[in-house]
Prior knowledge:
Number of helices: 3
Order of helices and strands: HHH
Strand content: under 5%
Number of strands: 0
Shape: elongated
Radius of gyration: 30 Å
Amino acid sequence: MKELSEQLDDLSVRVKKTEEVIDAAMARNRERLQAQLDSMTSAAQAQRAQVDQHVAQAKAQAQSKWQQLRDSIDDHFATVRANAAQHQAERDARRAEHHADQAEEDALVAVDFALYALDQADYAIIEAVIAREEADALVAQT
């Protein structure tokens, strides 16, 4: 994201270009107007490419974060499974009891996570249905 001073500089440049367009229009200089139009088209295309690049970066970041979350959850459950296998091999009753307690706690956390995910899915579904109904209603009005 640009700093405020850079945005103000860009605004100043854009104002200057607008003044040139007005000057050319007043002078009825077709060549100058066509050059301005070509320049503006090129600048708009460059701006569009820049916006597309920002959108692609945002998508990549969101996908990366989602992958990190999935990897973290997979790692957690892999650790839980590895611990379970290790504890199963142990014959110490005290350790087995502690392991059972930990496994039950992990199961509770997994169920809580599943419930949270289902709540979020329900919310997203309801929000999508409402958005679709509103969109359909607006389309029907036009």
